[in-house]
Amino acid sequence: MINNREQVTQLILSAKVLKGLRWQAVADALGLSKEWTTAACLGQMALNKEQASVIGKLFDLSDEAVAWLQIVPYKGSLPTAVPTDPLIYRWYELVNVYGSTIKELIHEEFGDGIMSAIDFSMDIQREIDPKGDRVNIVFSGKFLPYKSY
Q1: Are residues 55 and 13 part of one domain?
Q2: Residues 49 and 93 in one domain
Q3: Which residue is catalytic, options 90, 100, 104, 121?
Q4: Catalytic residue list contains 35
Q5: What is the CATH number of the domain that holds 61?
Q6: Annotated catalytic residue: which of 62, 64, 77, 93?
């Protein structure tokens, strides 16, 4: 019996290792981006019935696990307020160092509002560099202005 969505995530990760799958291959099977697909498989997005069925077949999941994939998850995957994983901590550090700059420049360009994480896309690519490969990440979120009422 599965008691929560995190258990399904663990089943997916175990099957991914066992089958030697890459997230891009999983995304190709769904016809969606590797970024959204990975987030969904890690328990941060709900899949529709068809998408959940594809993931279920790919990872040999039970009907119960496939049903869990279709439930809107509790979002937020970090176990602590300050992340301890070195890669994720660097993102925390980035926001601490550059967050006010990002906020200031977005407000200067767009006005008072936020960048949506709902109407959002992300692209992660390797950038070849002779001095050491670089991680190239592009976030694209719809600007949502605060409204007067």
Answers
A1: yes
A2: no
A3: 90
A4: no
A5: 1.10.260.40
A6: 93
- Provide the residue count of the chain: 149
User: Does 80 map to a domain?
Assistant: no
33 noted as active-site residue:
no
Count of structural domains, the chain: 2
Q: How far is CA 119 from the centre of its chain?
A: 13
Burial class (CB in 10 A: 0-12, 13-18, 19+), 32: middle
State both tokens at 32: 């969606």
* pLDDT (tens place) for every residue of the chain, 149 residues total: 999 999 999 999 999 999 999 999 999 999 999 999 999 999 999 999 999 999 999 999 999 999 999 999 988 888 888 999 999 999 999 999 999 999 999 999 999 999 999 999 999 999 999 999 999 999 999 999 999 99
The domain containing residue 140 runs over which residues?
A: 86-145
Query: Tokens in use for 94?
Result: 């980035």
